[in-house]
Amino acid sequence: MPSYRPQVPGPLRQYISRWEGYDYTLPDQLIHHGLPSTNMTLIFQFDHPVDAGWDLAATTQMWVLVAGLHTRPALIPTHGSQHGIQVSLTPLGSRAFLEMPIGALSGEIVSGAQAGQCLRETHERMSDLDWPSRFRFLTEYFMGRLSHTIDAPASPELQRAWHLLTHGSSATVDQAARETGWSRRHLLNRFRSEYGLTPSELRRLARFQEARRLAESGLPLATVAHTAGYADQAHLTREWSGFADVPPKVSLAEFPNVQEPLPGQ
């Protein structure tokens, strides 16, 4: 049940934080929790559509899925297997490749058709390719999109605030506001309009994302809590459960972390 995480090419790294191919065989009744992160999620699914929603009673099947920033898990019935590619877009990537601010789909899950016909065509062209060819094709596709991007990025002030709140800094929202030269209220309004979250929500989300990264590397949860800036392991568990609907150990056991090099490489 491998997953493949080739490096994102250098010219694309400010737009795509990571991408991953996966081909899992799973228990038929397993429900995957698509956890919140600081990225917009783009999924190209193969073999059968991805089935996803915020409520198991109202999921939708899609060959291409786009999910905006969110603070609760997406629920994904796996139906025994998952085979596809997940691309994690940064705010710059959302504007460059989807021509919308990352906040435009905040709290939403939509099909690729709603986000642009080109995504559907991209999926169709990748379906029958092998893994290395899929990632080569995606590289060419995204590089081509960059050559004619017309959507302007967020203002330098907003980009600075985003960076302060998401890149391992202990900066508070007040400090981020001072760095931009804006009042806290003005930062809040502009930030929510561009990113779909408040600065405080983003700061909590970034800390949770870092905790996930550390926990997935095998560190004990007490060490994860200290390193990621939580008061203690109980604080980490409360925050994790709030974002994931399940505690850390359940969440970490849901999908195996089995990474392999791309076939043929």
Automatic annotation (TrEMBL):
Give the GO molecular function terms: DNA-binding transcription factor activity; sequence-specific DNA binding
* Keyword Transcription regulation set for record: yes
List each copy of the HTH araC/xylS-type domain by range.
172-254
What keywords tag this UniProt record?
Answer: DNA-binding, Transcription, Transcription regulation
Q: Which Gene3D superfamilies match?
A: Homeodomain-like
Listed PANTHER family: BLL1074 PROTEIN (PTHR46796:SF15), HTH-TYPE TRANSCRIPTIONAL ACTIVATOR RHAS-RELATED (PTHR46796)
Q: What is this protein called?
A: AraC family transcriptional regulator
Q: What is the lineage of its organism?
A: Bacteria, Bacillati, Actinomycetota, Actinomycetes, Micrococcales
